[in-house]
Amino acid sequence: MHPSDEELILGCRRGDEASFDQLFERYRSRLFTFIWRYVRNREAAEDIFQETFVRVFTRADSFRRCAKVSTWVYTIAANLCRDELKRRKRRPTVSLDEPAAGQDPGQAWTHVVRLADENAEHPRESAEEAEHRAALWQAVDELPDELRVTLELQAQHGLKYREVAEVLGIPLGTVQSRIHNAVKLLRRKLRDGLEPNSARA
Amino acid sequence: MKPDENNIDELLIDYALGELDADETARVELLLAERPELMREARALKRMVSRMGVSMIMPPPRLVSRTRHAAYEAQTRGRGGRRILRAALRRPATLAAAGLVAAALVVALVGPGLWSGSDEQPPAIRQAATISEELKSFLEHNLEEMRALSRGEAPAEEDLSRPAAQAMLLLKKQPLAPPQRAVLEDIEAVWRHGYERFSSEGHLSDETVAELRELVTRKRLVERTEAMLADQPDGR
Hints:
By secondary structure, chain A is mainly α. Chain A is built from 9 helices and no strands.
């Protein structure tokens, strides 16, 4: 039987590397995706990814049992991402990863597609489905950052609204309105070309 | 009861994202059965959500191994320091009592008028006011950290717990003149404040760094630590 996240955290508290390894395996793709898309800079994303897991292992004893491990782990990453964005605002730097407009057109998506193709657990998607998916991610990338990050935590990472609120440190109502606005914007963008039959009468 | 038609867009989004409870879901599904256009929209929303859900980015292998290594190393390094602080924080009453007993003992030995700052202090008092190598090294290290903090550089997070723990231990075991004790207590309070914020927030935020900097400035910790180091009888 697989140990629960909470059991693995207890192992981390004892300094057990095997528990940490299992937790790391469970969260590494999800967290790397979240962090990279949050900060949109590869170098910063890698540093934050590393620091997040260092904190998960070294501060397992600050995890409170009433919380969910996933929420706690995402909160650590989100706090680091926010600090990075604040730092960048104060001391703007030019990165090769980071287009001048602040967008990251296609780059993260390239890796998303590659992973989907290599993932043997999912059947290879049709060309049409790949096209839908690409259009969706392009539209997501064009959303304002606040809406995009909030929506991704729910729809891509599977967190509930209240967990998203906890991770981002914002009220539940703000999460709901951001997600509603994000989805409405996406539907508007996507309605034109790819899904003509799904438009409401 | 039928769902509120004014919020139907939001309700469909919540439905597609799996955020409705069982009753709300049942009510929405009844409505969808009656309204084909809403059913099409709900399906499109669900497809969109499921397309987002399977897309993840793998971290590169060198980052995976670098991260594992850094975590193991930090864990091994950090356990000692955190244990000391936790143990020290758990017994503030014991520490306070130990401080009082030590102070009472010294007063009993050398009499009142202790550490008046006069040059006519008896040798025992001069001796008590002289700082040990251990304390000197502690002050020098923290002076550097506090200077860096005053320049706006964040302290190393892994080291946050150690100055507080060390200061408490030094307070406990060294006979110190009140001005020295006050400096050490203030250093301990600043780092302890930082560590507590850091533990509760899960990270060292810019706000915490700003607070620490403000405390260091307000308590004139850099100047007082420098003075304490310079005041030593052998000219240190």
